Amino acid sequence: MAIANAFFTAAFAPPRSAFPDAGSDAADQQFTLSKLCFPLHRGISRPGTATFLRKKVAVSCTIDGVESSSLSQARDSSLVPTPIVQIIQDPESDATAVELSFGDRLGALIDTMKSLNDLGLDVKKGFVTTEGTVKRTKFLITRLATGRRVEDPDLLERIRLTIINNLIKYHPESSERLAMGEVFGIKAPEKKPDVDVATHIHVKNEGNKRSMLYVETADRSGLLMEIIKIMADINIDVESAEIDTEGLIAKDTFYVSYRGAALNDSLSQVLVNCLRYYLRRPETDEDSY
Q1: Which pTM does this prediction carry?
Q2: Residue 104 DSSP symbol
Q3: Which of 65, 68, 142, 248 counts the most CB atoms within 10 A of its CB?
Q4: Phi/psi at 89 (5° precision)
Q5: H-state helical runs in the chain
C-alpha cells in the first residue's frame, strides 16, 4: 500500500479555532524575523519574512546556548505548566501549522526556529497570542525543497521531537512534565501514566468517504510512526491528522479511509483492537508482529 503517497492529501481536515485572530486587537504589535540575529533561510539570499503578532514585544537572546528569558524565571515545580505541542495539517493550506504553549514562559523561540530550519524547513510566519495566563505560539512551516507542507510522517515525528528537545533544553523545568524528560531532561517525571489506563481509541464515521480515528495514549518517542505502520499493515489510508502532545499524553486525531470509503464496523473494530494491543505493549519488538 502506498501509504506515503496517501498521507495528508485529503480535501478535508479538522477545523481549528484555538488561535483567535491576533490582528483584531489594536494593541497588538508586529515585527519581522529579518530584524533578528540569524538567517532563517540558509542558502537563500532573501531575508526571513516571518511575522509575529503578540500582546507585548519581548525578544530574548541566547547566552552560551541558553535563552535569557529562561534564566530569570522561577523554577517552582508546583507551578510548572503543562507543555503542549500540536502539529496540524490543513489541506486548504500549503503550510503545516505547529503550535506550542508552555504557560507564559516561552521566549522568542529563535533557537527552536533555527532547529526547524536545520531540518530543511522554512518558517514562513508566526503568531503569538495570549489567552489568560497562557501564551501560545504558532508557526507555519513548509519544506524548503518543495515550498509545501510536510507530508512525511517520519519528518513530522522529527519536528515534534525537535521542538520537545529544545523546550527541555531552554526550559529545563519542563522535563518533569514531558515523557522525553526521562531521557533528556534534568528531572524525570515523578509519575508516568499507566499505558493501559491512559490508552483510549475511538473511530467515528465522517460521512461515507472517511472516518475519524482518535488515539489517546502515553507519549513516547516514535509513537506516530507506530500508529501509521499499524494502519498501513491493514491497508488503511491516512488522509490528514492533528498530532497533539499534552505533557505526558499524546492525543492524535487521524482522518482515514479504506479504498476511498469510510471504515465499516468490522474494519473499525480490527483497527481499534490492533492499536490497543500494540500501544499497550510498548516493549513489543517491531519484528515480533
Answers
A1: 0.68
A2: B
A3: 248
A4: -100, 125
A5: 3-6, 68-71, 110-118, 153-170, 181-184, 195-198, 223-233, 265-279
CATH architecture assignment, domain 195-288: 2-Layer Sandwich (3.30)
Strand, coil or helix: what is 153?
helix
Q: Please, where are the H alpha helices in 17-79?
A: 68-71
Which tens digits make up the pLDDT trace of 142-170?
999 999 999 899 999 999 999 999 999 99
Domain locations along the chain: 6-13+20-65+79-184, 195-288
Q: How far, in whole angstroms, is CA 16 from its chain's centroid?
A: 14
Residue 172, exposed/middle/buried by CB under 10 A (0-12, 13-18, 19+)? Answer: middle
As given in the structure block, the three cell numbers for residue 214 are 482518535
User: Which among 215, 220, 221, 185 is positioned nearest to 200, based on CA atoms?
Assistant: 215
Q: How far apart are CA 118 and CA 97, in angstroms?
A: 17
C-alpha cell at 221: 518517542
3-state DSSP call for residue 174?
Answer: helix
